[in-house]
Amino acid sequence: xxxxxxLMGTGAVAAGTTLAAPAISQGRKEWKMVTxxxxxxxxxxxxxxxxxxxxxxxxxxxxxVKLFAAGELVPAFEAFDAVSNGTAELYHAPxxxxxxxxxxxxxxxxxxxxxxxxxxxxWLMHGGGMELWNELSNQFNxxxxxxxxxxxQMGGWFRNEINSVDDLQGLKFRMPGLGGEALRQxxxxxxxxxxxxxxxxxxxxxxxxxxxxxxxxxLAFGFYRIAKNYYYPGFHEPAPTIACGVNLDAFxxxxxxxxxxxxxxxxxxxxxxxxxxxxxxxxxxxTLVNQHGVQLKEFPEEVFDAFAGACDEVIExxxxxxxxxxxxxxxxxxxxxxxxxWTEISIQAYTNARxxxxx
Length: 359
What we know:
With 359 residues, this protein is of the alpha/beta class.
């Protein structure tokens, strides 16, 4: 072989190598997930990390997801905008945080006095809820998936007892979503705060009380150090769906296989997180009451009835916003009526009977 032939051959190999390297990495993507949770916060923060890891694993690394906790890349309440405009590819948060974008978003997290976990998923998966969620979110360049749920939440922590509706007047209370709007109807000064800011606000007196999630998460935040009155049940969040919102343009660039991987990673976390909260809340409640002197109290009937009445007014107003809001409201109400009758003679009737028999 002469020198010219050798060099030409070497060049061909080199060129082939140069072209092959991008081909190997072609199609691999690095996505950023932003959350509204403190870093590694039990259940919610760790659930977001599990979802990110599942997407990476199920796509065999073709989509590698790096998680950014609240404030690391964007502030907590700017997570939706970050995904909508492509600063990040995913967010992990309840959509009621984003009702300023459209008042119907809370229906896809939770509605006060609304659906419980089993009913919410029935509506999303079999009652047209997902189609409506897509119709709403796609307007903002977001593709939504359910990606976690905490189940029925507690009513919250109060410095002072709540014995009547009058005790709510002027109360400074942290509560997001339509539940917060209902409290405003009752004279409460409602303040929206991300999770990482609640303890300090309670400690300094900027708020008189707060709801967060339930015993497991509330124990982790240490609210019992400041407020000892722990009320139930939570009227405001009977089953908050935690969303994984994906930038629609980024999602549409994926292969069908990787789209399915993202969807199934989210659905897996939806189920796993709910089971984890059921498992952990009972243990944490025992610790709060028996080790930290927390006073567990049920809302007086008068107060809970007032909550329910205010919720009806707030939800009705959402339906007046636009045609899509009315369609979502009508679909949700139909689901509550259809599923509620079965819940009453199945889950509710059984748990009531189990309690009577000591089982």
